[in-house]
């Protein structure tokens, strides 16, 4: 079947919609993979006990209009956060209708929970109104920054407004925007040190699952110009990234001698990366340099990958060996440095290579795995918070003794005005550019860009807008007044 005949809407419905299945039929399924797949498609149940408990306790109050604000209160580099994943989160949660089948299914599950344990709180009426009164879609208003925006800590990422508990129910899913955002921030921070196009992503084995890895590769492309990944599925899903890799330990260990393994790899390929790590790294560097010299006129491109122990010393040793043999062609003599667990090591390699008289941008690539897709990729890395900040009675919010966990009360936005960044109340008059814009409003997605347009344009927009994060930041006078009013009100009640 040609691409023109592929029914994408039918596929999306089959892949993401909750199936026509009763809870009793689900209980009869003994295949765990199928159970997990079906469970993840139930939007009514895509929450947690914490949120269900709040919905139960608030009950009638839970139907009042409230605003929740997503904020990153910290930064992994102590300076800025790059936001990525808003589009993915909103479309995943709100791109498909809520069906009567999944509501009935959820009610049956929670009824069973009452018998197994005590927490079976469930507000069916709240969900039935979505189906009966709102065309099967959640009647929310969501404002968010663009997926390529750079924010300072404590600036709002997203605000969700409408009947309170419907706005809050997907808190865990919205919070997960942190993952792609941290991956994007780390990748961009590395790019600021080494420049664009010098990273090969090797993190498939370090990722917690396939979805997380592909998400990380996507974020790394947009924010760091990632060109190569070892994950074939990521290269398939993201057309701007191509698959690449090198030989690994098991290949060399499968041969009786290292010489036989080296020659076989070179003879069978036009371009090959040879690992330096099985027995004696320095002896293997010598052998690879000798083989590069032997095959120099063949047109074959032979690189080496340094993978463990003293990487700085090995890089300098290899570069000096190549220099002696007059093999310092940036197009043919790349060295891939892998197994790096922190950014400081990258910075050290760059500095030492320059001190030795070589330009790292010409000869050094970095094969980064867990550092990009797993290390410190946690909610706590950015202190992501999804907090109630506005009710029908006025602004509210968490203002505790732990100042680092405070939020700014109210319905917030960020305004660029007079060469500064100002966190404002949304009700304040617009003076220049507001960064939070509507992306979903009462059943309709409002993204200005299609996915292909967004990811294609993102790299240039990153470069155009990154400097804006250097502008001084402050709260508007109204935000300061609102914060003080909320603090005084809660202290007075106490």
Task: Furnish the topology, listing elements before pairings.
Elements: H1 8-16, H2 23-27, H3 32-40, H4 49-58, E1 65-72, E2 81-82, H5 86-94, H6 100-116, H7 124-133, E3 141-144, E4 150-151, E5 156-163, H8 164-168, H9 171-175, H10 177-194, E6 199-201, H11 210-224, E7 228-229, H12 232-237, E8 242-243, H13 249-253, H14 258-267, E9 271-276, H15 281-294, E10 301-306, H16 311-324, E11 335-338, H17 343-355, H18 360-363, E12 364-368, H19 370-373, H20 379-382, E13 384-391, E14 394-395, E15 412-417, E16 420-425, E17 433-434, E18 437-441, E19 444-445, H21 451-465, E20 473-475, H22 477-493
Parallel strand pairs: 6-7, 6-12, 7-8, 9-10, 10-11, 11-12, 16-20
Antiparallel strand pairs: 1-5, 1-13, 2-4, 3-5, 3-18, 13-14, 15-16, 15-17, 18-19
Short summary:
The chain is of the alpha/beta class.
Fold and architecture overview:
This protein is α/β, with parallel strands linked by helices and 494 residues long. Among the domains are: 1-41 and 97-136, no CATH class; 192-373, Aldolase class I (TIM Barrel). The protein is built from 22 helices and 20 strands. It has a 7-stranded antiparallel β-sheet with strand order 14-13-1-5-3-18-19. The protein has a 7-stranded parallel β-sheet with strand order 8-7-6-12-11-10-9. A 4-stranded mixed β-sheet has the order 17-15-16-20. Helix 15 (281-294) links the parallel strand 9 and strand 10. Helix 11 crosses helix 21 (451-465) and helix 15 (281-294) packs parallel to helix 16 (311-324). The longest helix is centred in the middle third of the chain and has 18 residues, at 177-194. The protein is globular and about 80 Å long. The protein starts with 7 loop residues before the first helix and ends with a helix.
């Amino acid at each position: 079947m040609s691409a023109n005949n592929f029914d994408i809407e039918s596929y999306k419905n089959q892949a993401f919609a909750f199936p026509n299945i009763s809870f009793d039929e689900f209980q009869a399924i003994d295949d765990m993979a199928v159970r997990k797949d079906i469970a993840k498609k139930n939007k009514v149940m895509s929450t947690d006990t914490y949120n269900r408990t709040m919905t139960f306790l608030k009950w009638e109050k839970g139907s009042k209009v409230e605003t929740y604000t997503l904020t990153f209160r910290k930064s992994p580099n102590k300076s800025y956060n790059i936001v990525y994943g808003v589009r993915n989160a909103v479309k995943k949660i709100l791109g498909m209708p809520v069906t009567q089948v999944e509501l009935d299914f959820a009610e049956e599950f929670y009824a069973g929970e009452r018998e197994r344990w005590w927490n079976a709180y469930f507000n069916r009426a709240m969900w039935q109104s979505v189906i009966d009164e709102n065309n099967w879609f959640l009647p929310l208003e969501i404002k968010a920054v663009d997926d390529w925006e750079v924010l300072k800590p404590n600036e709002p990422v997203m605000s969700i407004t409408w009947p309170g508990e419907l706005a809050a129910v997907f808190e865990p899913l919205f919070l997960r925007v942190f993952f792609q955002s941290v991956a994007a921030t780390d990748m961009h921070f590395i790019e600021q040190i080494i420049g664009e196009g010098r990273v090969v992503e090797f993190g498939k084995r370090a990722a917690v699952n396939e979805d997380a890895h592909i998400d990380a590769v996507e974020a790394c492309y947009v924010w760091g110009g990632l060109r190569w990944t070892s994950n074939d599925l990521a290269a398939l899903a993201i057309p701007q990234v191509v698959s690449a890799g090198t030989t690994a330990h098991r290949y060399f260990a499968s041969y009786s001698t290292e010489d036989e393994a080296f020659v076989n790899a070179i003879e069978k390929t036009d371009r090959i990366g040879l690992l330096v790590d099985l027995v004696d790294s320095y002896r293997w560097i010598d052998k690879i340099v000798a083989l590069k010299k032997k095959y120099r006129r063949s047109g074959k491109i032979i690189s080496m990958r340094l993978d463990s122990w003293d990487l700085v010393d090995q890089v300098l040793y290899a570069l000096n060996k190549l220099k002696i043999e007059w093999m310092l062609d940036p197009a043919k003599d790349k060295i891939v440095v892998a197994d790096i667990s922190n950014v400081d090591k990258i910075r050290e390699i760059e500095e030492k290579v320059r001190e030795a008289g070589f330009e790292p941008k010409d000869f050094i690539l970095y094969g980064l795995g867990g550092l990009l897709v797993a290390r410190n990729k946690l909610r706590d890395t950015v202190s992501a918070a999804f907090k109630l900040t506005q009710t029908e009675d006025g602004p509210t919010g968490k203002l505790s003794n732990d100042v680092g966990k405070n939020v700014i009360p109210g319905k917030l936005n960020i305004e660029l005005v007079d060469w500064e960044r100002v966190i404002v109340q949304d009700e304040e008059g617009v003076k220049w550019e507001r960064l939070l814009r509507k992306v979903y409003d009462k059943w309709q997605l409002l993204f200005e860009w299609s996915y292909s347009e967004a990811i294609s344009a993102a790299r240039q927009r990153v470069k155009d807008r990154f400097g804006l994060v250097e502008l001084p930041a402050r709260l508007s006078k109204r935000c300061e007044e609102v914060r003080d009013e909320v603090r005084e009100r809660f202290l007075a009640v106490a």
